[in-house]
């Protein structure tokens, strides 16, 4: 354990360990950081079952500590879990409840939320996890309120985060709570991460819904994507597809999983994200290029879907190419 005197952070080890999730806990809390002074975190890994333990990637771990050390921890981190259907040992549930009752903080990364939910401490609270696990988490634990969009959530010393990399955001946010923004910024620079992404920020997915390759409206969907700057009311979409409005609405749901208006807004937002990342075009041009018509409409739809304003998104994710060229898909000059 490091020769420091700060809060004791304990990461759970289990058979089938999620290697990446454990690695980021160790990276942030376990590396020596003499520049932070003697009050920096102490870090330990605690096996909840007898070793050696298998980890993703084809290697095994020989733990230094068993579950007893959890009784001393100030922060317990659950770095993923074996499987969304894997039971949580009753002894671990009891230990986590006792830890929280004495004032410890509990945090989970990705599927680790299933372990925290099993304690009952999250009942009635908003909880996040990887978007792929959200439905399973809600089904197994109907008393919690699953937020499938946020990067991380906190309530009553209980922290949950979305998939893998969102765990880094959560852990840096915990560092910020404990040691202030300068320390959090220092840790973020060392691991080459943004210094701060708000927990309410959305889990970013590039075109999460794609039309089925064999759908008869796939050509129309491709054409709409190339001409998002144009108005595309449902009546026009149905006419272009050669269908009645009712038939088209059934086909678009079958192809994309969402109603036409919702799908079109998602496509406009995805296009706006690309322009914001890759150019420095003014917001007025971005709004026109993707068909929202005004900066107000762009801001409204963008914040509803992405949980950030367009300017906040650009600030966090710009950098691939910042030339002030004409946005793709925009109207001809």
Describe the SSE topology.
Layout: E1 8-13, H1 19-30, E2 42-47, E3 53-55, E4 59-61, E5 75-79, H2 90-101, E6 105-109, H3 113-118, E7 126-128, H4 134-140, E8 145-147, E9 152-155, E10 158-161, H5 165-179, H6 181-190, H7 218-226, H8 234-241, H9 245-256, H10 260-278, H11 283-290, H12 295-306, H13 310-317
Parallel strand pairs: 1-2, 1-5, 5-6, 6-10, 7-8
Antiparallel strand pairs: 3-4, 9-10
Helix pairs in contact: 1-5, 5-6, 8-9, 10-11, 10-13
Notes on the protein architecture:
- Pfam families: DJ-1_PfpI, HTH_18.
- Residues 218-316 form the HTH araC/xylS-type domain.
- One of its GO terms (molecular function) is sequence-specific DNA binding.
- Keywords: DNA-binding, Transcription, Transcription regulation.
- This is Transcriptional regulator FtrA.
- It is built from 13 helices and ten strands.
- Strand 3 and strand 4 (59-61) form a beta hairpin.
- It has two domains: 6-191, Class I glutamine amidotransferase (GATase) domain (Rossmann fold), CATH 3.40.50.880; 217-317, Arc Repressor Mutant, subunit A (Orthogonal Bundle), CATH 1.10.10.60.
- The strands form three sheets. Strands 2-1-5-6-10-9 form a six-stranded mixed beta sheet.
- The protein is of the alpha/beta class.
- The longest helix has 19 residues, at 260-278.
- Residues 205-214 and 320-333 have low confidence and may be disordered.
- It starts with 7 loop residues before the first strand and ends in a 16-residue tail after the last helix.
